[in-house]
Amino acid sequence: MQSDFASTLAVLGPNAQYTVETIKNVTGGTVDIRFFEPGTLVPASQTFDAVASGALDSAWIKAKWDTLSATQKAQVTAACDSATLRGFASSEYLQVGALQELKAKGVNFMTWDKTFLEAYRKAREEVAVEQSAKSPEFKKARDSLSKFRGRAPTKRDSAGPHAPGAGCPRPACRACCA
Length: 178
Known about the structure:
Elements: H1 12-26, H2 47-53, H3 62-67, H4 70-104, H5 114-134, H6 136-151, H7 155-159, H8 174-177
């Protein structure tokens, strides 16, 4: 697995290592993925460029995936799901300390004015309409995102405005926003 993130990078790095180790453990070693630090096979952040140019066959090898049994595929999928959830939890946890550190250094947390946010939303929508007219792929992605947004409020919408120090309603933020 060619990684774009160093194993020492908070959350993303250790999570890539965790994925490799978990896959090996849950499959009893029948699936063994090798982790390559950025720059080992291709320059950092150029994995997909390397695949597109033919320098790498792929970031993940589909032909190899196709040889896995249904059980192995389920094990790999479960390990990846576990790593994703672990990453979400780790990043939420680490944000509290980071916000506390910034606050201690005198950083003022502010929210954007609603007038600005509405102007930004309107401008973003105009660009999205233009791009949808130019690109069927963009339109497909935008339609899918719009459908999702229509049935699921964003975390910020469901939690209310995030204004650290002003009584943030998010349980995870109470430590930094109190």
